[in-house]
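Entry 14. Structure prediction run on the chain below.
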Amino acid sequence: MTVSTLAKSWRVPFLTGWIPDEKISEIRSASDIVEVISEVVILKRAGRNFIGLCPFHAEKTPSFTVSPEKQIFYCFGCGAGGNIFTFLMKYQGTSFLEATTALAKRYGIPLPERAASSKQQYVRTDRERILEINQMAMEYYHTILLNESNGEVGRVYLRERGITDATLEAFQIGYAPKGWDHFAAHLNRKRIPTDTAFKSGLVIPRKKGGGGYDRFRERILFPIRDLGGQVIGFGGRVLDDSLPKYLNSPETATFQKGRSLYGLDRARKACRESDSVIIVEGYFDVIALHQHGIANTVATLGTGVTPDHIRLLKGFAQTFYFVFDPDVAGIKAVERVIPILIRENVTARIVRLPDGKDPDVFVREKGPKVFSDLVARSLPAMSFLIESAKIRHGPTPSGKSRIVSDLENTLASIDDEINRSIFVKAAAEGIGIEEDLLFQRVLRIRQKSGAKETFGDGFEQGGPADDVFSTDQPVRFEKKILTMMLQYPVMIPEIRTRRIVEQFSDPDLKDIGRLILSYTGAPEALIPEVISMGKDPETGKRIVHLAAGEDSWNAEGCLKLIRQFELHCDRPERADLNARIHAAQKENDHALLADLLKEKQRMIHKRD
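Output returned:
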């Protein structure tokens, strides 16, 4: 999208986001949920479905299921589930419109435009407006770097750092020139609302007077993108040693540092092919390594590694190589990340570069082969901590005591009992002390902190996520019937004729049943369509839960289930009728007895 196109969208009601229901259905039908999810989750076929590790919670045993037939996903561990739209919205943190638009673009489906109307117009979210401003900023600053005279200082600096023209283009690096309001004035000329410019974080309100000034000045700018390639924020670096050396976009509706990684949009393919990812600390580290052919590299954005980072990455790779500085701060970073990595069930290794050099400098001086050799000789994360502590404190008894002090809190922070015992054993052997002594010391720390044990898949002792429904007898029948309706829709006319849903005792299940009965489209689209028809996300989640089972249905079995349900519903009525028959017999009231027996016969025939 060009700058002029973006600018036009601000001057008229933005209506291209309005998408009719039939177009949404077309997009859903054209989309392949397995294809889309497999780009971020490693899936393996299991019967008719595909399974993998859930991207929404920590687990070791795959409980995340994707059904190509039903076009749904469901996690039996944490209960996350939905269709292709809800997956993209949950995984990428996008709106329904963004997810729909991305799928339409992916599968070549044109979206309609509607004429402006005072009654019906699409109102963009802050996120969508900020994304457009970010795109404008990327184009604006990139053009300055490549073509403008006030970008010459940036071009010289980048050439001195060995960045090629091809790399500048690939990463769309920019330069924010000297001056207080270049970009603010640019947005004003394009008639971008001032309050929206402020929300983007690229323009800061002046404390006195009106208007605002540019956040980034005299800095190299690195556009930060999401997995879909949209610019969600920026990182800026000064050309000298002034502080702050690096400055990021603030937290906005599009950008959260703890959920974003620089370079992942370009690294994802290489990560998947190698089943590994190299995590560095700087923008230039990523760019230099990519330029030298080491494309499975990403960078954090001035924060520690978070659980969201790991869950984002583990859809592409299972082995994580961390290139941290070998100083106290680097060691602390490893200590913080180990419990997260263990909870997320990924392998962590630490790459040590000699002389404390950054990856950017090292790969330019030594070349990619030497760097790759160091990656191959990397240490497991816990071994790195042990070796670093041994170097600092030495092998004496007092040194060993200090080593234990360095490691005990990290070991105690591992919630999974099995993993903790494995690492305690390895640490005790590495230090040269009795395993039981270290185990008891770690256990005391955990007891003092009130930490809870987890087992295997990250759930606290007591089991996985609770069922979303109660499990008393009537509700079990009703859930089973809804599952049958979703998975074997040929029985829906029978359900409708016998008014089965109206006999449900659970009001939420009755609402879902009515929703299914209201669907009039093709049977093969029933499940994803009904999920979308739900009144709220919780209803959609329940429908997915009901549809996710691996049941085998046939007409005979379905009719048997229906009859069992009807008999169950009739139980109070039958009990009352039998009591009345017994009373009539006792009173020798033959006329009443005849009527009651006929009523019982009608009840029996009605259920056959």
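The two ends are 64 Å apart (CA to CA).
Filed with the rest of this week's runs.
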